[in-house]
Design goal:
single chain; alpha/beta; Arc Repressor Mutant, subunit A; D-Maltodextrin-Binding Protein, domain 2; nine-stranded mixed beta sheet; 10 helices; elongated
């Protein structure tokens, strides 16, 4: 088959996304104020250009085909980029507007989100700020699809798809019930974890394996849990010890009697992540600066440390 340039246009993508969201040509036509026959013609043209059916048509409506599922995420991303571009151009003549989305682990969110909202939205009240929680895999997936614009992630990690900027280093801690003599020490060696019943997020175990593969083989991890409040509750109720960043202990403890001790030589690197090659809107640039400032405050308060060997601050 001879090569020819595809003639996919934004109208076709917009129509396709709306049909996928509503599950019906007629519902989509009503929402878009377009004749159903015209809508069907645009989708057929799109399927012809892309070489296959994008929608499975049935008596109960339409669903995405396998290739339609591939296009759906990309189409949403493209359309969101168009809206971001529109907002960015308008922002040059008006106050900063638009939507900007940030994801962070729950341990960081409990420290970051409230002051960030106060200061960022205090400066840019017309911006819509969307905050969500998640770990590394969530961040990679949602940055790639455009569901979030920026993410705070934990390294050391490298990625072919993300630009990463170190924000701070954070001690990893062993958390247990208050009164445990193991937790009264100033710090403990990594080897002290070998005989303990442990819980942690799966991404934390991956991190430990990357920096201490020999020691990680001796760990007894019986529970994998991502939520900071859930980790604190499980430790307080005697289900074992947790290996987590120190920030897990810095949020509201809800009167739970738990305590942490630093694990020597084990630090998490908090990083700011953005999708590589994606144009940065003004709102993204301003939010990046605001996130850096909040981490500088955490470092200044002694809650975290400056990234070791980090270069001067740069825009992500």
């Amino acid at each position: 088959m001879p090569f020819r340039d595809a003639k996919v246009n934004l109208r076709q993508l917009s129509y396709f996304v709306r049909i996928a969201q509503t599950g019906s040509f007629s519902a989509a036509a009503d929402a878009l104020h377009v004749a159903q026959s015209a809508l069907s013609r645009h989708i057929k043209d799109l399927e012809y250009e892309l070489g296959g059916e994008l929608l499975d048509r049935g008596s109960r409506g339409v669903t995405l085909s396998d290739s339609g599922k591939v296009l759906f995420d990309r189409a949403q991303f493209i359309l969101s980029q168009l809206e971001d571009a529109r907002s960015e151009v308008l922002a040059h003549n008006k106050d900063l507007m638009g939507t900007v989305r940030l994801l962070a682990p729950s341990s960081i969110g409990q420290l970051l989100f409230e002051p960030l909202v106060d200061r960022f939205l205090g400066k840019f009240p017309k911006v819509r700020l969307e905050l969500s929680e998640g770990l590394w895999n969530d961040a990679v997936s949602r940055l790639q699809t455009g569901a979030v614009d920026l993410a705070v992630v934990t390294g050391p990690k490298t990625s072919d798809y993300l630009d990463l900027e170190p924000l701070a280093n954070e001690h990893m801690t062993l958390v247990g019930k208050e009164g445990d003599p193991l937790l009264d020490k100033p710090s403990i060696a990594f080897g002290a974890l070998a005989d303990l019943r442990l819980m942690m997020p799966a991404v934390t175990l991956d991190f430990i394996r990357s920096v201490a593969p020999h020691h990680s083989e001796k760990l007894n991890v019986s529970i994998f849990v991502e939520s900071s409040p859930a980790i604190r509750a499980l430790v307080a109720s005697g289900h074992g010890y947790a290996v987590v960043p120190r920030s897990v202990l810095l949020g509201k403890l809800e009167d739970r009697k738990i305590k942490g001790v630093r694990i020597r030589g084990l630090e998490a690197v908090r990083q700011l992540a953005a999708l590589r090659g994606r144009p940065k809107s003004r709102a993204m640039r301003e939010l990046s600066m605001a996130v850096r400032l909040e981490f500088d405050h955490l470092i200044g308060a002694g809650l975290m440390q400056s990234p070791k060997g980090s270069a001067p601050r740069r825009e992500v």
